[in-house]
């Protein structure tokens, strides 16, 4: 593409964006903190899902200092059901580092900003371009789809070896005088026009330059490498009741679902019944002996790299004092206290049954 063609493409893209941009609560703000929070939330999450979370989060934590001063458990509670909780933990930790090192000021330097926990190439480019007007091109899933169709890129979009190719194409198109608007326009175009299925090429401002549109091969792009079959695990979960309260435990702060509370349980071994696995896991994790009373529910839940099928059992406390083997904390909670704690999505699928059981006692 010639320099003149690139300039024309940039102009058409921005003209389209100025007319069609969605009204979103993190747009039209010069506050790098708000841009940062929005971009963290938008990773792996749809815009409509993010909007209410963003508004509540900013209301409670309006700046870096407020976030840094917050208890991590409160932050995780605000993040509850948004998923990918490492995002929240990293954001909280990064806020603490900024308050300690720079009085809460977000650096306007790409390399310095990318040194913070959870800030990689994508978030670094987004915040630097949108909040500070620095010429860094954003490459997310929507942008990759636009680039793949525009240039007819045959390399699989979901492989690390193709990252450099998409980066080079994104850099070649970047309007350096308006990098923030350009990046948002590319992402917006992928979100509402150049969609995965049924792209609206007839209203696309880039259709005159688009290789996929010219060859009527829109459905062929982006190319994706076949993924391995996602494993599925069968687990048993125990709702241990003692009097009018139930036992919950907290996961260690790192790793999948780190810092969240849950009802104890784990994988069912080959040849083991769900009831036996439930009692065994509770004993191993908490040192408590329980009697499995009944099967409460079966729930399924999908994570990014695996799925679970969970059989949930109502259990009665029989003996023992809590000594944790794996979890880092525990509580005996009443029905009206459960909502005070952040739980994984899988637990939320049966928590109403737990509350009802406690109310019926």
What does it look like?
The chain is α+β, with helices and mostly antiparallel strands. It folds into two domains: 3-220, Hypothetical protein, domain 2 (Endonuclease III, domain 1, Orthogonal Bundle); 232-360, Nucleoside Triphosphate Pyrophosphohydrolase (Alpha-Beta Complex), CATH 3.90.79. It has helices at 3-20, 32-42, 47-60, 64-69, 72-79, 86-102, 110-114, 121-132, 141-151, 163-173, 179-192, 211-214, 274-286, 345-348, 351-360, and strands at 232-242, 245-250, 261-262, 265-267, 289-302, 307-319, 329-333. Strands 1, 2, 3, 4, 5, 6 and 7 form a seven-stranded mixed beta sheet that branches. Helix 2 (32-42) crosses helix 3.
* Distance between the amino and carboxyl termini: 72 Å
Our Rg estimate from Cα atoms comes to 24 Å
The helix fraction, in percent, is 40-55%
Written as H for each helix and E for each strand, in order along the chain, the element string is: HHHHHHHHHHHHEEEEHEEEHH
CATH fold-level name of the largest domain: Endonuclease III, domain 1
Overall geometry comes to: elongated
- Architecture of the largest domain, CATH level 2? Orthogonal Bundle
User: How many beta strands in the DSSP annotation?
Assistant: 7
How much of the sequence is in beta strands?
5-15%
Task: Enumerate the spans where pLDDT stays under 50 for 5 or more consecutive residues.
Answer: none
- Main beta-sheet strand count, sense and barrel state: 7 strands, mixed
**Broad CATH class of the largest domain:** Mainly Alpha
Domain count: 2
The CATH homologous superfamily of the largest domain is termed Hypothetical protein, domain 2
Mean pLDDT score: 95
Helix count equals 15
Structural category: alpha+beta
């Amino acid at each position: 593409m010639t320099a003149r063609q690139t300039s024309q493409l940039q102009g058409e893209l921005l003209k389209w964006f100025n007319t069609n941009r969605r009204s979103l609560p993190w747009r039209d703000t010069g506050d790098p903190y708000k841009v940062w929070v929005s971009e963290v939330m938008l990773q792996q999450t749809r815009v409509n899902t993010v909007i209410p979370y963003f508004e509540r989060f900013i209301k409670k934590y309006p700046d870096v200092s407020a976030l840094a001063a917050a208890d991590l458990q409160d932050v995780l509670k605000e993040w509850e059901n948004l998923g990918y909780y490492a995002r929240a933990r990293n954001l909280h930790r990064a806020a603490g580092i900024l308050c300690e090192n720079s009085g809460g000021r977000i650096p306007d330097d790409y390399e310095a900003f990318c040194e913070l926990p959870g800030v990689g190439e994508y978030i670094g480019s987004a915040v630097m371009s949108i909040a500070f007007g620095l010429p860094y091109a954003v490459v997310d899933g929507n942008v990759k789809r636009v680039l793949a169709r525009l240039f007819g890129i045959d390399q699989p979009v979901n492989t690390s070896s193709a990252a450099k190719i998409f980066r080079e194409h994104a850099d070649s198109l970047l309007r350096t005088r308006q990098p923030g608007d350009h990046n948002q326009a590319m992402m917006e175009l992928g979100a509402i026009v150049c969609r995965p299925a049924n792209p609206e090429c007839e209203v696309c401002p880039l259709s005159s330059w688009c290789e996929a549109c010219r060859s009527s091969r829109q459905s062929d792009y982006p190319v994706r490498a076949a993924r391995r079959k996602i494993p599925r695990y069968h687990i048993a979960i125990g709702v241990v009741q003692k009097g009018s309260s139930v036992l919950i435990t907290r996961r260690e702060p790192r790793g999948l679902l780190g810092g969240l509370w849950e009802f104890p349980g784990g994988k069912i071994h080959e040849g083991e019944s769900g009831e036996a696995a439930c009692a065994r896991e509770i004993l191993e994790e908490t040192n408590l002996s329980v009697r499995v009373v009944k099967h409460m529910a079966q729930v399924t839940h999908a994570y990014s790299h695996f799925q679970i099928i969970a059989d949930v059992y109502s259990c009665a406390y029989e003996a023992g004092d809590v000594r944790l083997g794996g979890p880092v904390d525990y509580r005996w909670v009443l029905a009206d206290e459960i909502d005070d704690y952040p739980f994984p999505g899988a637990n939320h699928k049966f928590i109403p049954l737990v509350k009802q059981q406690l109310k019926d006692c």
